[in-house]
Structure formats: structure tokens, C-alpha cells
Design brief:
The complex is a heterodimer. Chain A is mainly α. Chain A has a single domain, classed as MetI-like fold (Orthogonal Bundle), CATH 1.10.3720. Chain A has 11 helices and no strands. The longest helix of chain A has 38 residues. Classes of the chains: A mainly alpha, B alpha/beta.
């Protein structure tokens, strides 16, 4: 496969790497040259130090946030997938539920988080619940759309072959839906990290959201930037994992053969 | 009436309701014998595909009956005794060719070793041996259509229904597939109902050509093809072939008046 070849991988990745080096380099230079105070804009080197050398606690906090994000993502996606299947198979259920699901999805997470924390306590369970709520809707909608996107002639093939509903689902509709499912999962995984951090903002004594909040109160800006950077890295890592699973699961799909991806 | 073969009795199919009814097929009577190759030719909108779909229980007639060996299309479909080749190969892109060809047998619950052997034999029969492990996107349109013919034949159907199967292919590929279908149908003695736009294709392949006219779709005439079998592509330069094609074309054009 193309991405296993280091020379080709470098050939594709060097512009992004060059841009990274230029931006970080100018940032560091400008902050040092103009003596910008660190509470306004810490230098990349100060953020780097905050990540690795402060007290090492950022990684323990990141583990908490990562766990909340993954658990919430898994639970939310599971329920989302189930709702998607129900709505794809029953027009009545889709008409009954979707308006409320869409409405619920527009409620800002900062409004929901305090309520959930009041119900489930300020521990990890409430963070997972908020994350699950946030990473529920994209998969539900994409699963439903995906299950409805099958080829009509292939449906005729299954009809002539006298396939039952389960066979149609497993052998045709679900595989046809997978490209949509992965669109939903990629959105979910991004929202999951946001959900975990926002929930920690509201009320928590651990996690990256807690670190950001307490660093802000103490104006320890390098630590705030460090937590923000690590949270972005968690999001990127989880996204990359879902994308890798997608490559393995649907190698036949058009988007998988697009050389720019 | 005979209980064997495919029999249409007073078959009509209409779509829509009240003020907006389209009579796709109107009062069709036709008996196709076992082992016969019958083509249905006509312009777009004459209901030829509609007629074919009633045999496969993909569509129910609004009036009249269709029977296959005396049984209803639904019964025959549930017995997996019809094969259908669509204009589009309609292969599952996530399955290899052999897995695609096996699909109807897999649905029918035939054990793996048996369906695998049957599929491998059929893949050789339609001339794409060696491509068992390939994916549909790696094959040309003609090869994909061969795979879909193998799939339609996998359950060893009593009747093979083909809905403009070569309509989307280029002329050279179409000629090749016509030749191979000619040989295949002569060797296997299948009952084939073949829908096409092309009079020449119909005359080449068929025992009888059914010519339909549009609005409403009905049978205009039936042309028996008395060209000797086995036939080869060269039959197309025969005087008799030219004459039959000319008669067919004239009938087709009269249908518009």
C-alpha cells in the first residue's frame, strides 16, 4: 500500500512538515525578539516545556480525558447506530423521532453538561454521558442515510434470489452503508474529545478541561496552551485510528482510492 | 394450455392512479416453450422490460396471469428457479467475482464447497476463468456482465431472463458476448427471454422474436426465426438473416403509426 512506502509518504507529507517548521520557527523568533509576555502568547518552547517538564501531570490528565472520550464515543456511536437502523427501516419511527433528535442536537453542550453533572455527579460517569450525547447524532443520521443508499438493481438481485430481510441487511445494506458510517464515526470521534473537555470545564477535578480551567484561573498560560495542544493530539490520534480502520474495512470505496487522502 | 414454459395470459400492467394512468403493458398473450429462446424487441416505453419483470415477480400484473411451468412467479422465485440479468451488472463491489457469483447459492444456504465449485465452473463457462479473486472494479464492463450472467445461472434456473444485458457495451464486446450467449444457450438448452432494442441481435439469438409497439405496450407481431442451428456470427451475412431483420424492422416501424 502507498502509505507504507517511506519515500512516497515523505513525498506527500513534506509540504505540511515545512509549513509546520516555518510557522513554529517564526512564532518562536517573534516571541523572543519582541519579548512578548507569556500570558499573551507563550513561545512554542515554553509550551513544550510545560508539556514535558512541569510536573508530568498533563499526561495523567490526558489519559482521563482520552478515556472519557473513547468511552463516550463508543456508547454514543452504539446508540447512534441503533437509532439509524431503526429510522432507516421504519418511516414512522423516523418521523416520530428525528425532529426531536435534531432539536436536541442543537442544544449547546455547555447547557446540557451542568444538568448531566447534577444527575450523575462530578465524576467520570457524567463526562462520559455528555460525550456520548455529543457523539450520537452524526452516526445516527449517516447510518440512516447509508442504509437507504443501496443500489436498486442490486436490491432486485436479492429479491430474485429470494433473500430474507436479515440477508439483505448483512450482505447488502450494511456494506453499502459503511462509507457513510465512517463519515459519522469520524465526526463522532472529533466531537467526543470536545464533549469530554467541555464537560470537564463545567465541573471536574481531573482531565485536560480541568487543567485548562485551573491554568486560566492562575494565568499559567504555557500550561493552558500545553493542555490545549495535548487535547488536539488526542483528537488527531483518535481520528487517525478511525481512518485506519476505514481503510481496512472498505478498501473498495472510491474515496479510499483518492491519492490526496 | 400447456403447463410448461412461460405463459402470459391477458397480462396488463398500469402505473399511477385515476387521471394519471400509464398503461405500460396491455393485454399480452404469449406462450414460451421450454428450452425456447425468445426475444422481445421494441422501442423505449413499449413495456418490454415491464413484461420481463412480471416473470421474476419484481412486478405484479394489474390484470391477467403469468405462469412458469404452471406455477406463479412468486412460487418460482422462492424456488430460486429464475435467473435475471440486468442491463447493469449490479455486482457487489466489496466481493470478489467468485463471491459475487456464489451470492444466490449463499442466500439459498448451499454448503460452501458445493457453491464454490459451481461458481468456479460457471466462471469458466462464461469465459472469465482466472478472475475469480478479482474485484468487479478491476474488470471491464463486458467481463462484469459475464460475471452477472454466471451469477444468474448459479441456481440452475429453469428460465433465464435478460433485460438488455449488452445494452451498455461497445459493439465489439457486444458481438463477442452475443456469440458466446448463442453457444451457451444452444449447449445448455435453457429457456431464455431476452429483451433488446436491436432487431439484429434478436434475430441472431432467438427462435422467435416478439415485436412490441408502444402506448399502450402490446404485442404487434411474432416473427419465427427459421435460421438453422447451431448458428454462428457469420449467419448475419446470410440473405435469410437480412430478410428477417428487414421484416422485423418494418414491423417495428409500423408500430409507431
Amino acid at each position: 500500500m502507498a502509505f507504507a512506502d517511506p519515500a512516497r509518504l515523505f513525498g506527500r507529507a513534506w509540504p505540511a512538515l515545512a509549513a509546520f517548521v516555518i510557522v513554529i520557527g517564526s512564532w518562536e523568533t517573534i516571541v523572543r525578539a519582541y519579548d512578548v509576555p507569556s500570558y499573551l502568547m507563550p513561545a512554542p518552547s515554553a509550551i513544550w516545556t510545560a508539556i514535558w517538564f512541569d510536573d508530568g501531570s498533563i499526561f495523567a490528565q490526558a489519559a482521563t480525558t482520552g478515556f472519557e472520550a473513547i468511552a463516550g464515543f463508543a456508547i454514543g456511536s452504539l446508540f447512534g447506530a441503533f437509532l439509524g437502523v431503526v429510522c432507516a427501516y421504519s418511516v414512522i419511527m423516523a418521523r416520530a423521532l428525528l425532529p426531536y433528535v435534531i432539536a436536541a442536537n442543537t442544544i449547546p453542550v455547555v447547557g446540557i453538561a451542568p444538568i448531566v453533572i447534577l444527575w450523575l455527579g462530578s465524576g467520570i460517569a457524567s463526562k462520559i454521558a455528555v460525550t456520548a450525547l455529543l457523539s450520537f447524532f452524526p452516526l445516527a443520521l449517516n447510518m440512516m442515510r447509508g442504509l437507504q443508499s443501496y443500489d436498486r438493481t442490486i436490491m432486485d438481485v436479492f429479491h430474485v434470489a429470494a433473500a430474507n430481510g436479515v440477508q439483505r441487511f448483512i450482505k447488502m445494506r450494511l456494506p453499502s452503508a459503511l462509507p457513510y458510517v465512517f463519515v459519522g464515526l469520524k465526526l463522532n470521534v472529533t466531537f467526543a474529545v470536545i464533549g469530554a473537555i467541555v464537560a470537564e470545564f463545567v465541573q471536574a477535578d481531573e482531565g485536560l478541561g480541568f487543567v485548562i480551567m485551573s491554568a486560566y484561573k492562575n494565568l499559567n498560560m504555557p500550561r493552558l496552551w500545553a493542555a490545549m495542544t495535548v487535547s488536539a493530539l488526542i483528537g488527531i490520534a483518535l481520528f487517525a485510528i478511525v481512518a485506519a480502520v476505514e481503510r481496512l474495512a472498505i478498501p473498495w470505496h472510491n474515496a479510499m482510492r483518492d491519492p490526496s487522502l | 394450455m400447456s403447463a410448461s414454459g412461460v405463459v402470459f395470459r391477458g397480462v396488463s400492467v398500469s402505473y399511477g392512479r385515476r387521471d394519471d394512468i400509464v398503461h405500460a403493458v396491455s393485454d399480452v398473450d404469449l406462450a414460451i416453450a421450454d428450452g425456447e429462446f425468445v426475444s422481445i424487441v421494441g422501442p423505449s416505453g413499449c413495456g418490454k422490460s415491464t413484461l420481463l419483470r412480471t416473470v421474476a415477480d419484481l412486478l405484479a400484473p394489474t390484470a391477467g396471469t403469468v405462469t412458469i411451468a404452471g406455477k406463479s412467479p412468486r412460487t418460482v422465485r422462492l424456488e430460486r428457479a429464475v435467473g435475471f440479468v440486468f442491463q447493469d451488472a449490479a455486482l457487489l463491489e466489496w466481493r470478489t467475482i467468485v463471491d459475487n457469483v456464489m451470492l444466490p447459492l449463499e442466500i439459498a444456504g448451499v454448503p460452501y464447497a458445493e457453491r464454490r465449485k459451481r461458481a468456479t465452473d460457471l466462471i469458466a463457462l462464461v469465459g472469465i476463468a482466472g478472475f475469480e479473486r478479482s474485484y468487479p472494479r478491476q474488470l471491464s464492463g463486458g467481463m462484469r456482465q459475464r460475471a452477472s450472467i454466471a451469477r444468474a445461472m448459479s441456481t440452475d434456473p429453469a428460465v433465464l431472463l435478460m433485460d438488455e444485458p449488452f445494452g451498455a457495451l461497445d459493439q465489439i464486446t457486444r458481438d463477442r458476448l452475443n456469440l458466446e450467449l448463442l453457444e451457451l444457450s444452444q449447449r445448455e438448452r435453457m429457456t431464455v427471454v431476452f429483451v433488446t432494442h436491436s432487431i439484429a441481435e434478436a434475430v441472431l439469438l432467438s427462435d422467435r422474436v416478439v415485436i412490441m409497439s408502444p402506448r399502450p405496450g402490446r404485442i404487434r407481431s411474432i416473427l419465427p426465426i427459421d435460421l438453422p442451428r447451431p448458428r454462428r456470427l457469420e449467419v448475419r451475412s446470410d440473405a435469410r438473416f437480412a430478410e428477417l431483420a428487414r421484416i422485423g424492422l418494418a414491423e417495428l416501424e409500423d408500430g409507431f403509426r
